[in-house]
Write a structure and sequence with these properties.
mainly alpha; 2 domains; 13 helices; PUB12-19-like_N; Adaptor_Cbl_N_dom_sf; U-box domain-containing protein 16
Length: 325
């Protein structure tokens, strides 16, 4: 007989199935049931991520989208490539910088027409190139629009800045994976050649500019410091062994060959005073004011014609001016 004993059935709490109150009291007395420590919890799978749109460009933190980045590179490289004639000062450094940017422009044009994704290293390299080309553009514009005489005094410092731009360009190309970019073979060879040249770039100061800078420093040493002579006499700058022939030769060499050129140079020097007042200190401001005085002296004392210094009696040579002084 498989029936339970009557005593066991009588003592069971389930004797009266209809008594739900008793059942609830028993459950409350036991408290919440705890899962055994060795019990295996059922696996809960997270919902699958929503698929990204097929047309969404790949982006990385801190980088522009590849399409926008390439558009910026093409635009700024075209601006540098289409700049006007090379200035008289820093001619070699300016032309070398513009040539490098033109070589990179062909690479940017081809990458803009490529629909494939760019590697993170490519995005990093192109981002660095964008920053470097913008610096190169600002440097070339500064040399073209700035004061000629002040730029002559800053010849060595500006040469160092051009050198820094070239080296930064080389470091950016270090991480550019050309082998994984769909570009023509001739473009790849040009970029590789540019990379090697940028890595070997050295500081270059034109010997002519170095000589003119030394002569201008000698003129500044004999001129009244920080004096600006606005009237037409200019006697205050004619003493102290300062011959107008030396000033005239320097002015002619840096492009001050007409009265309007002198007026523009004075305006640029005055703008440089405001710029250097907060950064260059009193010494730089004093030098610039002395340069203004020299330009006004040159404009008032020497008749400026269309002839070159060597063919006009108004522009004695360095030997004659030094012997006369």
């Amino acid at each position: 007989d498989l029936r339970l004993p009557q005593s066991h059935v009588d003592e069971s709490p389930w004797k009266a199935p209809g008594d739900m109150g008793l059942m609830r009291r028993l459950i409350d007395a036991e408290g919440p049931k705890r899962r055994p420590t060795n019990a295996i919890a059922p696996m809960e799978r997270p919902p699958p991520p929503a698929p990204a749109p097929a047309t969404a460009p790949a982006t990385f933190s801190g980088f522009l989208p590849s399409d926008d980045l390439l558009e910026c590179l093409v635009q700024v490289s075209e601006e540098v490539s289409s700049m006007g004639k090379t200035p008289l000062l820093h001619a070699r450094n300016v032309s070398s910088t513009v040539r490098r940017v033109r070589l990179l422009a062909s690479l940017f044009e081809e990458l803009r027409g490529w629909n494939g994704p760019l590697r993170p290293s490519s995005l990093l390299s192109l981002t660095e190139l964008l920053s470097t080309i913008r610096r190169a553009k600002a440097l070339v514009e500064e040399c073209a629009a700035g004061s000629a005489l002040w730029g002559l005094l800053q010849a060595e410092a500006d040469a160092g800045r051009f050198h820094a731009v070239a080296r930064e360009m080389g470091r950016a190309l270090d991480i550019l994976p050309l082998a994984y970019l769909a570009v023509h073979a001739d473009v790849r060879e040009q970029v590789e050649l540019l990379h090697r040249q940028a890595k070997r770039a050295e500081v270059f100061v034109d010997p002519r500019e170095r000589r003119l800078r030394e002569e201008l420093l000698q003129v500044l040493a004999g001129a009244p410091r920080g004096h600006v002579d606005g009237h037409s006499g200019g006697e205050s700058c004619s003493g102290g062994g300062l011959g107008h022939g030396r000033v005239g030769e320097i002015a002619w060499e840096v492009g001050l060959r007409s009265s309007s050129d002198c007026d523009e140079e004075v305006a640029r020097l005055e703008a440089e005073v405001s710029k250097q007042a907060g950064t260059g200190g009193l010494a730089a401001v004093s030098d610039i004011k002395t340069l203004i005085s020299l330009v006004l002296h040159w404009k008032s004392m020497v008749p400026i014609s269309n002839s070159t210094p060597s063919s006009s009696s108004s522009f004695p040579s360095s030997s004659s001016s030094s012997s006369s002084s």
